[in-house]
UniProtKB/TrEMBL annotation:
Keywords: Amino-acid biosynthesis, Aromatic amino acid biosynthesis, NADP, Oxidoreductase
Native source organism of the sequence: Skermanella aerolata
Residue ranges of every copy of the Shikimate dehydrogenase substrate binding N-terminal domain listed in the record: 14-101
Protein's name according to its UniProt entry: Shikimate dehydrogenase (NADP(+))
Biological-process GO terms, alphabetical: amino acid biosynthetic process; aromatic amino acid family biosynthetic process; chorismate biosynthetic process; shikimate metabolic process
Pfam families named in the record: Shikimate_dh_N
Gene: aroE_2
Pathway where this protein functions: Aromatic compound metabolism; 3,4-dihydroxybenzoate biosynthesis; 3-dehydroquinate from D-quinate (NAD(+) route); Metabolic intermediate biosynthesis; chorismate biosynthesis; chorismate from D-erythrose 4-phosphate and phosphoenolpyruvate: step 4/7
Active site (record annotation): 78 (proton acceptor)
Entry function: Involved in the biosynthesis of the chorismate, which leads to the biosynthesis of aromatic amino acids. Catalyzes the reversible NADPH linked reduction of 3-dehydroshikimate (DHSA) to yield shikimate (SA).
Top-level taxon: Bacteria
Gene Ontology molecular function, alphabetical: NADP binding; shikimate 3-dehydrogenase (NADP+) activity
Length: 285
């Protein structure tokens, strides 16, 4: 029997709603094992616990007291967690969303690896696509991170649509303040915006296993459009299936899922993970 007492040990968790099928725990634990450290990653599903976002202060305190090294934060907690943290990274502060919390010396630090995760996946999956105009559906916590990534990736103008038009307008104003006037706008006419766009980025929960369907009418899609998805359970959403059928170039949500985990693993453990190995493990699940 091998002696593991001298190995570094890490305890982490994921807080969110309806996350039983998440692949994140397995990605972290497997990479920990490959790195020769003991790594335990727990799922803290507020749905299963019968709790709402209002339980976040209690959960955060409990994790800190129980010696957790860090937490990942997902829907619907990425914005609600912010006032509860001691410090924010520049990225998390600009984006107004946190997906990784690190506990150190009695303090809590909020980070955002979502935007970097989307950008890394995009650079690999759609490296050479035209980026003059893109349409983004969804302006929530993940949407804010992805829009930040899209403008970093050189999208000339991003038209943002959300069920809550004030939220889309707020995000567009934030982005234009950071990236330059007019780089992001709140969309008004989805059909004409998609017709004129080079690409479509989807950042709403529609298409998830528990929320099947399409986030926009299929007839709006056209073959010249590239389509990037952030839903990764399932990897082939109805949106991607229909888009591929039309001949669109597509990017599934796996890249963002893997690379946000790569970033979070490094923040929580201080160890540089093997991104390619984590990607292979994700795809094997």
């Amino acid at each position: 029997m091998t002696d593991t007492s001298s190995q570094p040990a890490f305890l982490a968790g994921l807080i969110g709603s309806g996350i039983q099928a998440s692949r994140t725990p397995s990605m972290h634990e497997r990479e920990g094992a490959e790195q020769g450290v003991r790594y335990v990653y727990r799922i803290i599903d507020i749905d299963k616990l019968g709790l709402g976002v209002e339980a976040l202060p209690e959960l955060l305190t409990a994790a800190q007291r129980m010696g957790f090294n860090g937490l990942n934060i997902t829907y619907p907690c990425k914005q609600a967690i912010i006032p509860l943290l001691d410090e924010l990274s520049d990225d998390a502060s600009q984006l107004g969303a946190v997906n990784t919390v690190v506990f150190k010396d009695g303090r809590s630090y909020g980070h955002n690896t979502d935007w970097w995760g989307f950008a890394e996946g995009f650079k690999r999956g759609l490296p050479d696509v035209k980026r003059d105009r893109a349409v983004q559906l969804g302006a929530g916590g993940a949407g804010a991170a992805v829009a930040h990534a899209a403008l970093n990736l050189g999208v000339g103008q991003l038209a943002i649509f959300d069920m809550d038009s004030a939220r889309a307008a707020g995000l567009a104003a934030d982005l234009s303040a950071r990236f330059g006037e007019g780089r992001a706008v709140a969309g008004t006419d989805l059909a004409s915006s998609v017709a004129e766009a080079d690409g479509l980025i989807h950042c709403t929960p529609t298409g998830m296993a528990k929320l099947p369907g399409m986030p926009l009418p299929a007839e709006m899609l056209h073959p010249a459009l590239w389509v990037a998805e952030i839903v990764y359970f399932p990897l082939e959403t109805e949106l991607l299936r229909v888009a591929r059928g039309l001949g669109c170039r597509t990017l599934d949500g796996g890249g963002m899922a893997v690379f946000q985990a790569v970033g979070a693993f490094q923040l929580i453990t201080g160890i540089e993970p093997d991104a390619e190995r984590m990607r292979r493990h994700f795809l094997s699940m």
